[in-house]
Write a structure and sequence with these properties.
Helix content: 40-55%
Number of strands: 8
Radius of gyration: 18 Å
Length: about 270
């Protein structure tokens, strides 16, 4: 029986997909790239608009990549991404990370990025990922740790945003500080500690263009995405409070000295 999914806090509003489409294998899966070989078969769980997935496919020209999402709508954009790049060793499917519809030992690499923080049972998901990975293969995961995000200037409204986001994410069944928990979750899922490499990395936004993109996205997301709906319906914030948080993001975006770091935990697990 499939695991009941937690609610996806961000949703698939255009402002959300715009940030997800910025992600590449280089800026979001760099810790994995040295392990890839041209013949590999890869499962990319929670592929979203498919930009990382398509990058993987270009790096395994004799192999194959399957991108998987829990909902079908976003996969139209993923397929368009692959078509526009002329990539053919790729497919996109709908599936449940808690109950993968593949036989044991199906893939050389199973990858997940910014998904475990949103689901109800990350340990079960990691166990399933291990099950469908071939002996000697790799399970790779990278997750944000919201509590250690940091920024300058220390605009009060951004602290309100972080507090609000964390409360809404947990009410939806997720864990916003997933990055620090990856190693523990992998061990609970049955991985051998000696085969786990645990690292951290960060995205950093400081140029005018980066601030406009990152800050502008969040200024829109806090009033227009599923996060806003969950915040209001759950009694975590009023629409007026969300508007003030949006204005704080706009203020940060305009700061010439504005700087923002998003820290991630990462694991490479040898199966």
């Amino acid at each position: 029986m499939a695991q009941k999914p937690a609610a996806y806090t961000h949703g698939h509003h255009e402002s959300v997909l715009r940030t997800h489409s910025w992600r590449t294998a280089t800026n979001s899966a760099g810790y994995l790239l040295d392990s890839l070989q041209p013949h590999m078969h890869i499962l990319d769980v929670g592929c979203g608009p498919g930009t990382i997935t398509a990058d993987f496919a270009s790096l395994v020209p004799q192999g194959h990549v399957t991108g998987m999402e829990s909902v079908p709508g976003v996969l139209d954009q993923a397929r368009s991404t692959a078509t526009e790049r002329g990539i053919h060793n790729i497919e996109f499917v709908v599936g449940d990370i808690h109950a993968l519809e593949y036989p044991d030992n199906s893939f050389d690499v199973v990858h997940v990025h910014q998904v475990l923080q949103h689901i109800s049972d990350p340990v079960k998901a990691l166990s399933e990922m291990r099950r469908v990975t071939k002996p000697g293969g790799i399970v790779a995961a990278r997750e944000t740790d919201f509590a250690v995000m940091t920024w300058y200037p220390e605009i009060e409204g951004l602290s309100d945003w972080l507090n609000l986001y964390s409360r809404v994410a947990r009410s939806n069944g997720g864990e916003p500080n997933a990055g620090r928990r990856l190693l523990a979750w992998a061990r609970l899922a049955g991985y051998d500690r000696a085969g786990i490499t645990s690292t951290a990395s960060a995205w950093c936004y400081s140029t005018p263009e980066e601030r406009a993109w990152w800050g502008g996205s969040w200024a829109e997301r806090v009033v227009s995405s599923s996060l806003a709906k969950s915040a209001v319906e759950g009694g975590f914030a009023t629409k007026e409070e969300l508007l003030r948080i949006s204005e704080a993001w706009q203020q940060w975006t305009a700061e010439e000295d504005g700087w923002f770091a998003v820290v991630h935990g990462e694991i490479l697990c040898q199966v």
